[in-house]
User: Fold these one by one.
Assistant:
Number 1:
Amino acid sequence: MSDHCCASEGAIAGALEKIRANGGRVTEPRRAMLAILGKEHGPFSAEELHKKIGGAGCDVVTVYRSLQAMEEIGVVRRCDFGDGTYRYEFNDGEHHHHHIICRVCRSVETLDVCVADGLERMARQKGYQKVTHTLEIFGVCPKCA
Amino acid sequence: MSDHCCASEGAIAGALEKIRANGGRVTEPRRAMLAILGKEHGPFSAEELHKKIGGAGCDVVTVYRSLQAMEEIGVVRRCDFGDGTYRYEFNDGEHHHHHIICRVCRSVETLDVCVADGLERMARQKGYQKVTHTLEIFGVCPKCA
DNA sequence: TTTCGTGCAAAACCTTTGCAAAGTG
DNA sequence: CACTTTGCAAAGGTTTTGCACGAAA
């Protein structure tokens, strides 16, 4: 309950259940990926995730494919930090947050605030369905300034 | 004044001036790119922009390089619509807007609202400098739903 | 004239795809 | 057993880089 930095075991179990509910299979690579995404909450690129899975791991292609599959059903969320590589993080239901990325050292800070609900509502009123959004903040952090 | 869909001549002139002020050169390709970005306000990919410049145009590589240079000094802004291609639009000073992108037909609607000012302020309070942000809304548009 | 931009070609990079074999429910 | 996922290899597509030449201030 209310563990700020990590997804609970239950959340990961729920994610696995969601995979099954959508006709997907729960495999070893997916378990491993979700374990890391739930614990370190990153966001990580496919490459980074692949390294973290390590020896027992799977092919990088599998990481790409699994991330894509899990993103489509909302189990993970994709972030773009503007450096040509997509990163993924565990999608903790409605409680989403955003990041401040330092343009110089690439450090990432998490902001537990979301201000885009109004915009999402606006989009729904315009007739859009399955509305989501991406929001990232960029700047030069105190250490690099 | 207050032309909703286009940047004024003055805005483009200002952009050119900003390029010079940052030690850049105002070249034919850059004029052409800004003319289109100011008029159609896109956002366009480098490839699209290159096609729009047309016969008199320049190499695609030049478009890439110019867009990058102009983004660094804030003359244009880069958007990520999640399909692996970056798009650029004219950066009209403080008056920025956001987009709703249809996940199916890839149509783009403009939202003249920005809700991230609070987040930017928060970032500045944390000691970040040169704060910017990206925010895009995704959904399935009425026609595709 | 000094510095920056451009063209061309090639490279780098991340991500996707095809197909047969293996795993999941 | 039907269907999904994986591995391997290869392709795809966008963006970047090197270098000599040309252009801007």
Number 2:
Amino acid sequence: MPELPEVETIRSQLEKYLVGHKIEKIDVRVAKIFASGKEKLVGGRVKSLRRFGKVLVIDLTNGYSFLIHLKLTGQVVFSSPKLPNKESSYTHVVFHLDKNANLFFNDSRKFGWIKVEKTAEVEAEPFVKKLGPEPLKNLTLKKFQEILASTRRPVKILLLDQEKLSGVGNIYANDALWEAKINPRRPANSLGLSEQSKLLGAIEEILKIGLKYQGASDQWYITAEGKKGRYQEHFLVYGRVGESCRRCGAKIRRVVVGGRGTFICANCQK
DNA sequence: ACCTAAACCTGGGCGC
DNA sequence: TGCGCCCAGGTTTAGG
């Protein structure tokens, strides 16, 4: 799922549901997902929720936090007497909360992880620490231009590199490049001024649209309320192989860039 | 520094 | 229906 709009949708919903709840017990059914430290969380109460790129952070009042990465198929779903129960055969970790509520971590492919850190040390955690600036937050045009100018690697690979900028994944990278009419294979340092600025604007715009539709439920993603997002109904180019370009009508092609499926209108994206 | 393929896993879709 | 193959919102690692 799990690009910036999907994780942010989960974060903001959990802020509403989870804050104030006490963690009474944690049931880890697949050890590799949550390898250690769960005892630090038991008895703690949820204080706040943060997000760094695609990483969700849940802070407790006892000085500890836990980080969740959903990778490709992870789900984080809140359940209470009022919401549908999304426990399934893919539920690998259950946080039992007070007031008959639960937080489920589901993950078909088991690539996701949960990790405990002291709250004060979350930003120094190795994965978080390496993250680059984030669109809609602290990615300025100047910084974006520096990042692009620093390499001749294909621009799409840069957009997906979390150490260069964080939060953008394959869906939003494809759609933003289409929106900006830039070919994903273009060397990053070959973009002109107006292209650089157009691309940053497109990234911000597409992420905002993703947020508006509560993310893309192309496959496994669901919100913390257990519902589907709707951005998949508005894909600009992602996944539209064989269909017509929304701008010029040419056929959308699938190519591979940096080992990832990449969708382009060869007519529009130069 | 950069590139690729493979690895971590499982399920869905498609062609035959 | 079944089987084999390819694909998948991410990231890391091994090898060149």
Number 3:
Amino acid sequence: MAVKIKDVAKRAGVSVTTVSRVLNGEKYVKDDLKKRVNEAIKELGYAPSQIARSLVRNKTNLIGVIVPDLTSNFYSTILSSIEKTASLNDYNLLVCNIIEDIDKEFKYLNVFQEMRVEGIIIMHEKINPEIRDFINRLQIPVLFSTVKPADQNFTSVIVDDYKAAYEATDYLIKLGHERIAFIGGDMRDITSGQNRYTAYRNALTDHGLKILYELIRFGDYKVASGYAMMNELLQIEEQPTAVFAVSDDMALGAMNCLHDRGLQVPGDISVMGFDGSQLTELVRPRLTSMEQPIHEMGQLTVETMLELISGSAKLEGDIIMQHRLVVRDSCRPIEQAEKQTAVKSS
Amino acid sequence: MAVKIKDVAKRAGVSVTTVSRVLNGEKYVKDDLKKRVNEAIKELGYAPSQIARSLVRNKTNLIGVIVPDLTSNFYSTILSSIEKTASLNDYNLLVCNIIEDIDKEFKYLNVFQEMRVEGIIIMHEKINPEIRDFINRLQIPVLFSTVKPADQNFTSVIVDDYKAAYEATDYLIKLGHERIAFIGGDMRDITSGQNRYTAYRNALTDHGLKILYELIRFGDYKVASGYAMMNELLQIEEQPTAVFAVSDDMALGAMNCLHDRGLQVPGDISVMGFDGSQLTELVRPRLTSMEQPIHEMGQLTVETMLELISGSAKLEGDIIMQHRLVVRDSCRPIEQAEKQTAVKSS
DNA sequence: CTGAAAGCGCTTACAG
DNA sequence: CTGAAAGCGCTTACAG
């Protein structure tokens, strides 16, 4: 069907070896031959088959990427960064959107293996033993990004979640808040689940505040769960004056819930997010958030992967990125007087 | 490096042909041989090379997708739907995020050709003559989705943009609005650019309203341009009472601009979007929007592509999807009395 | 500087 | 039911 190297060779009156040489920019091809070959290529609209090339070179220039949810702004943004860096390095992406479907993840890992991708980037941490064993047996480098699966010794590109969540909580405390609600993530994740939760509690106790377990809820990082958890938090007798949600999406859900219940952010309740997705700038009030350097993480994930592929680097331990608190409009200081009022009015 | 079919054959004590037969689920393999082969496969952790398979079968099960901007909720949602449908049909996606970079689009079209993808889905309409010619010469089926490039006879999966925009404008008029601003798209696009603009003007004149050119602006579909255009619209002496933006992102930008200027939506100005992205439900007030059936469009795009690939269908003309006005909270009726007030207060 | 030949890891007639 | 051999479209020593 498609034009092949033999056709070009015939047309140019040379051997396929010579065409191959021209294609790969080797020297030692006389200019007139080179010219004839290039003309033949143009006339025939020839494009060499990467499939055949991959087979002989044992190199596909393919990276497999597993994303938990493409429609999340956080993941689509980091995927965008990953794609950009891969493209700049002449690598192509095979993208799998698993939507919490572990079977699909396993299926795709098989596909990646069969497609002979040179590396696999995973942004999903809820792996099961089957997947863990599969990955461990795989000869292909695997890198986790923005997440760290529990009970594993896989390598991740992540922020220091404990420190980041600690500083976020600390910020709210310094604003004068004492009743700070927490909307956490999945405890199966070390980083975004356990670490952020532990940091929240430690920050409270380090400042002499009590941990109020009625103010603690766990969601699944998505907008809807932030909304639902906030709704629950509003049922309790004495309302929080601030909420720390461990994803921007959940923070947005919380803000929407407050809005729909007629409460003002930050007038009545302050809201703090985590991630630094574009949403923080798109909503009103703009969301104060503990940000991950999303673009840099995507870029470094790919660059590290390329080093793993080329063998120019071995990995020891995780790669830690720098988080950053970005103050916008969703948190405000609270006065002692207000705290009393809040208590009374509840 | 990786285990190959020969290794499996040796281990199982059969020929590679037999291994291949087991792999491909052919009958005519004795049960004991089949069992030995499967054991060898498992012991060796063998996964057949799709690269080699693609070469001999002349079939890659690959579809190339060109997205204008992954971080846009509209595109990431339809990509999610495309990925889902492709995956269900055992096709994999090679994803290119071009970010308005025509050179990158051209480069990727070449990559797609070299990778021998079986079909190409493009969600970007600003193609240039070079790309047009390239596509026309390509032996691979190309399908546009959600967009239609100008001056071309390519096939698109789209809504009836004229009708949809007409109905959107009609809705605002029926709410009593007479000063309806328009934030349009790129006039190089037939559908989202020209058709929606024409529909807006026709709806006005059909209802005996004058086209007020000072109320017309053009953006690039993104949030920032909606914000900027709204800002311009607020400079003019007599403000609009409603704004129709031809993308949800621009509508959101407009809402944010109004919010930042201290104006209420829909109290002071009504805002209507277009697309039906998830944002419509995530912002407050919820955005009334003329929706495209995003999931269905993604699904039908892939299903149509698969028919084109298998040759089981030829295409004649575009595939038109059904649009739908979804009323939320960003538009409100306006009374005659208010119109007078609005004029005076300007 | 150029080309014939082997080989990449599979599948698929063909023969038995 | 099973296997030897040819071939998919390239690249790469090897020889000249």
